[in-house]
Amino acid sequence: MTSLSRPDARSHGRFNLEQQRKRAKELLKAVRAAEPAAQARFLQYVPPRESPLTLADAQFVIARECGFPSWPKLKAHTESLDMSRRLVTERGDRDLTTLHIRCGSDIEHSLRMAGFEGDFLEFSDPFCLGPLRDLPPEELMRLRAGFLAGLSGMAEGDILGRLVKSYKGLDELAHYARIVLWFEHDSYDQLLLAYLLHRLRQHLPSARIELVAVESIPGIERFIGIGQLAPDLLAWLWRQRRPVEAPLLDLGTRAWRALTADNPGPLEDLIATGTPALPMMGRALERHLRELPEASTGLGLTETLTLEIVRDHGPLPVGRAFALLMREYEPLPYLGDLMFWWLLQPLMSVSQPLLQISDTHQEWPHRQLALTGLGQDVLEGRRHWLDHACGERWVGGIRICPRASSC
């Protein structure tokens, strides 16, 4: 029965308390009728006993299935969501002229649905891919546009136009009394956040600066990003925003300078501090460094995980490989599906590839990936990828060159 299944709210975070009460009553009825599936669910959380099971027991099981330690915790969270929604409806961001900044457009519509009315700026240059340099904005945009054009096959002028819109938006902050940064815990977000904090420190606006920084959501089974959340959750996060003060701005500058250094030393030193102004940034920077080549294979972590997925589950479609990466293999998911596709290209396009892909007219998510013999050897450390790779790769400011004399 649908009502007895694991709730969809485990992915988007919005729980309806009356629905959960109904599910508890249905579960209790099913277990009293000795339905095996209901009994199995109870035994996951309630030890066998002589006394009859009660509605409170069923509510406890439902709460645990929703990701909460108890029914009162689930109830308190849903009540907090309801209050947050009311407060945003009554006031929201209308007390101050507000700019919301996010590393994508994924929450813009949800912000409107939740009741926010401020302006929105998408700043989504994927710093987790390609070269980074501590350059003036105009030069950095040109560097990034050239790299992204080569990676994606898109026209450099088109990419530059999009970047200009984002970067120039940071020069127009005087229009606002409040600036709110919406970022989660992964390296895609945190690298961009470091740059934004650095820019804000360089040219401190008169506006109040606030941060919504998220690494987990109650009841979410695997939190990947703010974009997966229901609009009500954005209202709830709004109440948890924090002021951006000098220590956090300083961290942004130090992180940006470390990210753009041509060696890992500055990043390693910064990570060792635990980044107390924002601990999730340190964890994201540590994950970023794991894209450097591993000594025995020459592979970065994303490359390693991708080969492991294809070894364990392949041949399989590219889209399925990406889904497994995000849901099961990646310790700190940060890639979008198109970025994943771009990262596959160097593994497939050389004369001795690590991956083979089916030659069909299907869209790329449906094309089949298979591991080659060289891919198996590299994954097991018998051969080194940099002896076969072509073209340079960048991890922030660190350039990685192949060891092969020719491609």
Automatic annotation (TrEMBL):
Domain called DUF1835: residue spans: 99-203
InterPro entries per record: DUF1835
Cited Pfam families: DUF1835
Domain of life (superkingdom): Bacteria
Protein name: DUF1835 domain-containing protein
